[in-house]
TrEMBL record:
<dbReference type="GO" id="GO:0042147">
    <property type="term" value="P:retrograde transport, endosome to Golgi"/>
</dbReference>
<protein>
    <recommendedName>
        <fullName>Protein RIC1 homolog</fullName>
    </recommendedName>
</protein>
<dbReference type="GO" id="GO:0034066">
    <property type="term" value="C:Ric1-Rgp1 guanyl-nucleotide exchange factor complex"/>
</dbReference>
<dbReference type="InterPro" id="IPR040096">
    <property type="entry name" value="Ric1"/>
</dbReference>
<feature type="region of interest" description="Disordered">
    <location>
        <begin position="1191"/>
        <end position="1225"/>
    </location>
</feature>
<feature type="compositionally biased region" description="Acidic residues">
    <location>
        <begin position="1095"/>
        <end position="1108"/>
    </location>
</feature>
<feature type="compositionally biased region" description="Pro residues">
    <location>
        <begin position="640"/>
        <end position="651"/>
    </location>
</feature>
<dbReference type="InterPro" id="IPR009771">
    <property type="entry name" value="RIC1_C"/>
</dbReference>
<dbReference type="GO" id="GO:0000139">
    <property type="term" value="C:Golgi membrane"/>
</dbReference>
<feature type="domain" description="RIC1 C-terminal alpha solenoid region">
    <location>
        <begin position="785"/>
        <end position="947"/>
    </location>
</feature>
<feature type="region of interest" description="Disordered">
    <location>
        <begin position="1037"/>
        <end position="1122"/>
    </location>
</feature>
<dbReference type="Pfam" id="PF07064">
    <property type="entry name" value="RIC1"/>
</dbReference>
<dbReference type="GO" id="GO:0006886">
    <property type="term" value="P:intracellular protein transport"/>
</dbReference>
<dbReference type="Pfam" id="PF25440">
    <property type="entry name" value="Beta-prop_RIC1_2nd"/>
</dbReference>
<keyword id="KW-0472">Membrane</keyword>
<feature type="region of interest" description="Disordered">
    <location>
        <begin position="632"/>
        <end position="656"/>
    </location>
</feature>
<dbReference type="GO" id="GO:0005829">
    <property type="term" value="C:cytosol"/>
</dbReference>
Length: 1225
């Protein structure tokens, strides 16, 4: 589809001519443009935007015949007719001087440094001189409303209701003159109305060639279509059909390909009609209206519709308003661009008025005569640049649909999803699709000048299935590009390139390019296949002749479907040797005109059956292949196989009666040949874009498995099920579901449940505030939840569950369920009328089948208004019960979210009770960050508000109250909870967790240990405590180690700490390697720790940039982080005189200086006895400690433990004595 891009171009016209600009008009081929002013006619070449010739009328002619008003071209571009303000027709001849020298001769400078070395600096087009000569003029009686070009005639519509036929030789064909007062008009079946007087004053008129009629707008606001059964449009065969419900029309535009008639209204809207072949009446298709939500007061700001212009390919319509502004809609009403939102504040003074507009070649430029709405005399001609979807003119390719491909006049834009530099040889250019859906950037590839210099602009483009190669075709030949190697290939022989013109599109078949073309040299139509790996040359191609021009092509595996201009649909089989014709079908009875076939797609609608999808004037027609009857077969019970039957005659497959699947169809997407067995519903679905009506999906319905009791299982597959329930003929095999989308779809990702699209965006920068910088950005939308909702609405819960189960591995599956619940909740809770069959309970029961139910409900609640919460939890259940369920399932983060819900729905006392329960669970699970938040939450609860109504009823929270004794009680209550948990950790020997707990929750650990050193800090069984500490710090028990000679022995005694290298003290230095430092259990120790190299985060202790240790770490040591944390806890325990656990840590760290000083009597001997039996690695260390009795300990250094006199275990501790216990100097 069409999207504006970059800034518009301004034609270089003199100031005097700009003030008198009237209109712009292109010839039939859109190569030449006529710029009409009040007194001159200029002919411009669109490709180079240069003026070729200009004819100025003299003042005598202007005074006699009037000023220029309208201009029309003859079909062969040899004449133009100018309609003046005094109803005179001035005819001019245009003659090209073939023998003359070009108008623009490029001569290089004689200076070598100024010579042009690049071919892009040369214009290869020979712009020949064009002469304009006055031929004749015709005076038309009465005022002329419009003039049209009908082949070799001019159709002149007078405001009086007369329609004249005038030849280009200035002859008036009186026999074909038509008076609308003599034409019978039909309105609603057989009812005939005859109108007189002002009812037939014509305001605008357009020609419908494929319908053989004229669309007329009268000055009274009514609209009608004049139809005839004769080819010559004879007056006696003309009858009129009134357009229903149109009373304020201002302008009309016709769409030939889709057989649509559009009318602009005084209200600023547009309405589009189509002809119903059954009733012969025009029926409303859709309306072109801006939403009041996005564009408030758009009708009063823009005014009545002034101009309407369809694109050359009939896929979009541009609309402008009298007061200013323009918009662009797709063929069936999807809004693409609107200039009313280009400015921050919409006002008439910031709008630009459009006085005339015309589409350029292939629709890449929109020529407009514009002026500021407040200054209509300051006129300019601008060229608005556009890019469009490649599928707009080339709908056949189904490969490469996971990318969005846009094409401009000289470049292609690919939705970039990975860098080319990351793709090595043999790798796909796009490998990680799911990780880059949000990428807004495009890969822009410009077609080389060597090709575009004579083949501008691009007409067709296609990308292969691997998204590695692009093929483009312009006015002649083709070229292709490798994204991986950044290299273009063009024809080496320019003559071969210009000998054919691509007309039926481009397709990629593996490494081959398939195209339909016209052989200009031989005057025949062909299908050509060019290999990608060889040079572009006809000697390497495979050519198949066809009977008529190729209009549409589609490919499925090795089957090629071709639609020709003679109404025939031909099926081919592709192979390396060429093409084999399989079948030929005549579609004369289905297709009204060959140009009405928008697309012909070869698809597999289920099983091995082939299907053909024809988009005829926006109606999707299905031709389905009938199943071939089974011939032969062995009789039941026969022992020997039957003799082989004779070969049947070669007869093509039969096709079923055409079936219309949908109307207002713009695009169609089908999946590949082999559907994914994990996602059979989505990968076999048919997607349809329907403009303003959103999208529709034709979804397959598979029968449920047969349970043990013969009934279908709803919710899980029964292990005993051996088959499926039999499908009866009356049971639907597919269902059509409407899907609402908020983007314009350009690609469908079947396996990812995502629709890709593009949208237009603007940026106001520079001095020109009327025309901003236009950019195109990618957009996407997940379509899973709309499908689930539609299936649940139709009581197809089993199929919804199957689809959801197949998509449960998608990263946004939980978000899709959340959107499903949120949309249904808002719609039903805000409904002003009772809903007889509410969908919300059904949706809740559906989401309950998945493990993310609790998380989905609370996330939906937190993103919904508080006023809707009672409605939600009335259907889901009490949030207190859901909170308890989260605790039972261990979903603590989800339970914290429910706590916020309870805070708004219940009194503060209830929130406090549940927060206390969650705090205990978080502490037991080691979720320190959550526990810290809960502590802050509990401290923020004002005890005075414990019995206050919930916040949802009172509105904003009350102001904080001054500090009271109740707050002190609340603080003590929280401290008791934290102290209880710390006591639990200390008694269990979880010293590492105790350190993390204190670091994250700012717990006073020193004070706590001093209080608990004779209670929870006592150790009764040192062997069990040592094993618990080893497990807590993930510190391996020492085992027997081989010496250098290969003999095994117990671990050598550990030397005193002063003899240990510095890198092995306190977990420091060279042992800090990232491979051994990823233990997160001790994360969060305080950064203010006295121990060297200790902090609150393991990552900050051991930076990744430090090198690995030169000396390997012994097997008895843990990670550097664990050692640092253990030494820090040893320091803290020593300061708090908690000697029992200090001994356990000292033994684990093999600290021979601290262990004998803090060990109670007999403890080391008991540990030695255990080590001799179970852990020989500790024997040497314990023996050394038992034999070590320091006489006078030296002065301690910073961070060392210094012993104090030990007291007997039976003596009670003496508080306040500095000499007792163990301490840190």
């Amino acid at each position: 589809m069409y999207f504006p891009i970059r800034w518009p171009k301004f034609l270089n016209i003199s100031k005097e001519e700009r003030a008198t600009l009237v209109c712009v008009n292109s010839d039939y081929n859109r190569i030449l443009f006529a710029v009409l002013t009040e007194d001159s006619i200029g002919i411009w070449l669109e490709k180079l935007c240069i003026q070729i010739v200009c004819h100025h009328r003299d003042q005598e002619s202007i005074a006699k015949h009037g000023k220029n008003w309208k201009l029309v071209w003859k079909r062969d571009s040899t004449m133009v007719a100018v309609l003046t303000s005094k109803s005179h027709l001035l005819l001019y001849h245009l003659e090209t001087e073939e023998s003359g020298s070009p108008l623009f001769e490029q001569v290089d400078s004689s200076v070598s440094t100024l010579k042009r070395e690049s071919s892009e600096l040369f214009v290869r087009d020979a712009v020949l001189p064009l002469h304009m000569k006055f031929a004749s003029h015709i005076c038309v009686s009465g005022e002329v409303a419009n003039v049209l070009s009908l082949g070799d005639e001019l159709l002149v519509a007078c405001t009086s209701g007369h329609i004249l036929r005038i030849g280009w030789d200035a002859s008036v064909h009186q026999d074909f003159a038509l008076d609308l007062r003599d034409v019978p008009f039909t309105c609603g079946g057989s009812c005939r109305q005859s109108c007189h007087g002002d009812a037939f004053e014509i305001r605008d008129i357009q020609y419908l060639p494929l319908l053989g009629g004229l669309s007329v707008v009268f000055t009274c606001g009514r609209a009608a279509v004049l139809m005839t059964s004769s080819q010559g449009f004879e007056p006696k065969d003309v009858n009129g059909i009134w357009i229903p419900d149109v009373t304020d029309a201002t302008v009309t535009a016709v769409n030939h390909r889709y057989r649509l008639v559009a009318y602009g209204l005084r209200s600023g809207e547009g309405v589009v009609f189509y002809l119903d072949d059954a009733s012969g009446q025009f029926i409303t298709s859709h309306r072109l209206a801006l939403s009041a939500k996005d564009f408030p007061d758009a009708g009063s700001v823009g005014g009545a519709v002034a101009l309407m212009q369809w694109t050359p390919d009939s896929t979009a319509v541009a609309v402008s308003w009298e007061k200013g502004g323009f918009a662009l809609w797709s063929v069936f009403g999807s809004l693409l661009v609107c200039s009313l939102n280009w400015n921050a504040s919409v006002s008439c003074k910031n709008l630009f008025a459009v006085h005339s507009m015309e589409w350029g070649a292939e629709g890449y430029h929109l020529w407009m005569v514009t002026s500021p709405s407040s200054k209509p005399e300051e006129r300019d001609i601008i060229l608005m640049n556009f890019v469009k979807s490649a599928s707009t003119v080339n709908p056949g390719p189904q490969s490469g649909r996971q990318h969005v491909l846009l094409q401009g006049s000289d470049c292609v834009l690919i939705s970039s999803e990975s860098d080319l530099a990351d793709s090595g040889p043999g790798l796909s250019w796009s490998q990680d699709r799911a990780g880059s859906r949000g990428n807004k950037h495009w890969t822009v590839e410009r077609v080389p000048h060597t090709y575009l210099s004579i083949n501008w602009p691009i007409r067709y483009s296609a990308i292969d299935a691997g998204c590695n190669h692009i093929a483009v075709a312009g006015r002649g030949g083709l070229a292709h590009f490798s994204l991986a190697h950044n290299k273009w290939k063009v024809f080496g022989n320019e003559t071969q390139e210009q000998d054919f013109v691509v007309t039926g599109g481009l397709l990629w078949w593996d490494s081959f390019i398939v195209l339909g073309c016209v052989n200009v040299k031989d005057g025949r139509d062909e299908i050509r296949v060019y290999p990608r790996n060889t040079k572009l040359d006809n000697s390497f191609s495979r050519i198949c002749k066809v009977n008529d021009q190729v209009l549409q092509m589609s490919l499925s595996e090795d089957r090629l479907l071709v639609f020709l201009a003679d109404y025939h649909l031909v099926l081919y089989q592709l192979h390396l040797g060429g093409l084999d014709r399989l079948q030929d079908m005549d579609l004369t009875n289905i297709v009204p005109h060959p140009l009405c076939v928008v697309s012909a797609t070869l698809a597999h609608v289920g099983g091995a059956k082939h299907g053909i999808l024809l988009n005829v004037c926006g109606r999707l027609v299905l031709l389905q292949q009938d199943q071939a009857p089974v011939v032969g077969g062995a009789p039941a019970g026969s022992g020997a196989p039957p003799p082989p039957p004779p070969p049947p005659p070669r007869v093509g497959p039969r096709w079923s009666t055409p079936t219309v699947l949908a109307s207002c169809v713009e695009k169609v997407w089908v999946a590949g040949r082999s559907p994914d067995p994990r996602m059979p519903h989505l990968t076999q679905a048919l997607w349809i874009a329907c403009g303003v009506n959103g999208m529709q999906v034709w979804l397959p319905l598979f029968p449920p498995p047969n349970g043990a009791n013969g009934a279908p299982t709803a919710g899980s597959n029964v292990p005993g099920a051996t088959g499926f329930l039999p499908r009866h003929n009356f049971m639907a095999k597919r269902i059509m579901l409407p899907i609402t989308v908020h983007i314009y779809p350009l690609a469908v990702l079947f396996e990812e449940a995502v629709v890709l699209g593009a949208e237009s965006d603007t940026a106001l920068c520079g001095s020109n505030d009327l025309f901003p910088l236009c950019v195109v950005s990618k957009s996407s939308q997940v379509y899973l939840h709309p499908i689930l909702r539609q299936l649940l609405c139709r009581n197809l819960g089993y199929h919804a569950w199957e689809i959801a189960r197949s998509c449960s591995a998608l990263p946004y599956f939980h978000h899709s369920l959340e959107l499903l619940l949120h949309e249904v909740l808002e719609e039903e809770a805000m409904s002003s009328e009772p809903i007889p069959d509410a969908l919300l309970p059904r949706v809740i029961d559906f989401i309950r089948e998945f493990p993310v139910f609790l998380q989905t409900v609370v996330q939906c609640a937190r993103k919904t208004e508080l006023a809707l919460w009672p409605h939600l939890f009335a259907a889901v259940g009490n949030p207190k019960d859901l909170f308890q369920e989260c605790l039972l399932q261990g979903q603590l983060d989800t339970a914290a979210s429910y706590l916020l819900v309870l805070q708004n729905l219940e009194v503060a006392l209830v929130s406090r009770q549940h927060a206390t329960l969650l705090l205990g669970a978080a502490l037991d699970a080691g979720c320190w960050a959550l526990a810290k938040d809960l502590v802050r939450f509990l401290r923020a609860i004002d005890p005075a508000d414990a019995e206050s109504p919930p916040r949802a009823a009172l509105g904003p929270p009350p102001p904080p109250l001054p500090h009271t004794d109740d707050e002190t009680i609340n603080q003590v209550f929280i401290d008791v909870i934290l102290s209880r948990h710390a006591r639990k950790l200390l008694a269990a020997g979880h010293l590492r967790k105790l350190g993390s707990f204190a670091a994250h929750l700012d717990f006073p650990l020193d004070e706590f240990l001093q209080k608990e050193r004779t209670r929870a800090g006592r150790v009764d069984d040192y062997v069990v405590a040592l094993k618990a500490v080893h497990q807590d710090f993930e510190w391996p028990l020492p085992v027997s180690m081989p010496n250098v000679n290969g003999e095994t022995h117990t671990t050598a005694p550990t030397p005193p700490e002063e003899h240990v290298p510095p890198q092995h003290r306190n977990g420091g230095g060279a042992d800090q390697s990232p491979e051994r430092g990823n233990n997160s259990a001790g994360r969060g120790f305080p950064r203010e720790s006295p121990a060297e190299s200790e902090s609150a985060s393991e990552d900050s202790w051991w930076p990744e940039e430090e090198e690995a240790p030169a000396t390997p770490i012994p097997d008895w040591r843990g990670s550097p982080q664990a050692e640092a944390q253990a030494r820090h806890m040893l320091q803290v325990l020593g300061q708090a005189r908690c000697c029992d656990w200090a001994l356990v840590l000292a033994v684990m760290l093999r600290d021979s200086l601290v262990a004998p000083l803090v060990a109670p009597d007999g403890t080391l001997a008991a540990l030695e006895e255990w080590a001799l039996k179970e852990c020989p690695g500790y024997v040497g260390f314990l023996q050394m400690v038992l034999g070590h009795t320091p006489e006078e300990p030296s002065l301690p250094t910073s961070g060392e433990l210094v012993p104090a006199p030990r007291l007997p275990r039976t003596a009670p501790p003496q508080e306040g004595t500095a000499e007792e216990g163990c301490r840190v100097a």
